[in-house]
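Researcher: I need the complex structure. Ligand is alpha-D-galactopyranose. Inputs:
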Amino acid sequence: MTTQELQQAFEQAYGRKAEKIYFAPGRVNLIGEHTDYNGGCVFPCALSFGAWLLIAKNNDKVLRFRSLNMPQVYEIALDAIKPQADRAWCNYSLGCMEIIHRRHPEAKLESGYDLLYYGNVPAGAGLSSSAAMEVVTARAFTEEMGWKDADDKKYRTELALIGQACEHEYAGVMCGIMDQFASAQGKKDHAIYLNCDTLDFEHVPVKLNGIKVVITNTHSPHHLDSGAYNDRVRQCKTAVEQICKVKPIKFLAELSPEDWETVESAITDPIAKKRARHVVGEVARTSAAVEALKKGEIEYFGELMTASHISLRDDYEVTGPELDALAEAAWQVDGVLGSRMTGGGFGGCTVSLVRDEAIDAFKKFVGEEYEKKTGLKADFYVAEIGDGVMRLA
Ligand code: GLA
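Model: Output:
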């Protein structure tokens, strides 16, 4: 949808024009999976898919929520901002507003607003549609509450932290910072090499001559639920506690593969041990992959992606039959440098590096193999790496 079409939709809903329009992207993670809440590094990029938010003040001291993707409409009094029952979609938005107040008590919403959301991140694809909605809301309402310097890096990091707190408290997913950070700090044609402990980061150019980043959607009915995700968070904590008996650490990501050899036997819980082995290996793979990309060693980058998938399949156990079917088919195609699941896992998408001349063969072979194995049809998107959250008008 164009900005003009969105403006028309706003006018149709509210009988006047929106005053401001904002956009925040979804993300794809190239490598560094399930490392963020373990104090490790990640390497995501913002996409050109995302969430749009149009707003206009009203004189009624109410917040009116509409979305072009959802039938439910909500009207909530300004002095009664709290989560709504039945997982109402406006909770992501209300959560951000409440968390802005809490983290910045001086920030106040003085007026009511009419809001219209629209998102084009494929639903359930693990490409961070909820993070996009949180970050676009945080961007719009911090500005309405008087924040300046929206292009400042610190401001953008704060938007990501507001979004993450909203996910924890209003959606019950104890996620790391990666998704919201990518949505807030993305840069066109760059990936973000982020240290999730210190929040220091670097934009690394993704210059892949003759190679594309291809996202493949499983359209799987299995979704990452908060239960399976939060279990992984807990299992990693157990591993940290057991390792602390022989070596004091705060996060698994502090361990190098050499350290692992010396602490591994301290983990008595076999599940926790597998989870920790993935995290230690994945952190090492991620920094090696970033180095490889900087040196133009794209083949090696691809190999590390594939190794990441195998570790997520065997040790972290977050892939499942659909993601495995896609990745395993991709590995057989000439011209595929690497392929792995991206995001939380279970359903969602894979990300692959594919040579331009192999893209058609890749889509055909992977699509057919996938349908044979699962009965489902996959979708393919060539990723466009875009900018982070912005005001469009
Ligand atoms: C989800 C979470 C992220 C991250 C990934 C796995 O997308 O929201 O914080 O943990 O899973 O890497």
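Model: Summary of the prediction. The two ends are 15 Å apart (CA to CA).
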